[in-house]
Amino acid sequence: QAAAFRQAQAQKQRPQEPEAATAAENALTFVLTEDRLEVRDPPELLPEMLERLDLGERDTFYDLGSGVGKVVLQTAMTVRLRRCVGIELARSRVRTARSMLRRARQEKLIVSRRCVFANADFMASDLSDATCVYTCSTAFSLRFMRMLARKIEGL
Fold it and tell me: Using the 8-state DSSP alphabet, how is residue 115 labeled?
């Protein structure tokens, strides 16, 4: 099923930046909510993933290592959440994400009650209000992912 979905997506031939396409093809997505951890393929599956998670107005969504904010913005534009948060260490990426958020707000595209981007180390960040924690990166080692899992295990 997932392979068929990926093939259908590839056939749409959407224009993508070459580097972004390569990164997306190789990425795995890890989603932890309340009692389950899902490991998914590239972020193109985000709409399906959000639908399956059945998030709502009481939920707070975190994207750890949010980059330029694509996942946070897409989530904030499609799901009415209490809060949608992107945490990214690279200042330049946070600046880009905040700029895109301002533009989305001007166009009245954001449906979540609150959407923010923080320039911070997510391992040192308070995630206590999280109901859904997301990360998508092949840059993290297995050891680091285990440390992250321990950090969010008690949420």
Answer: E
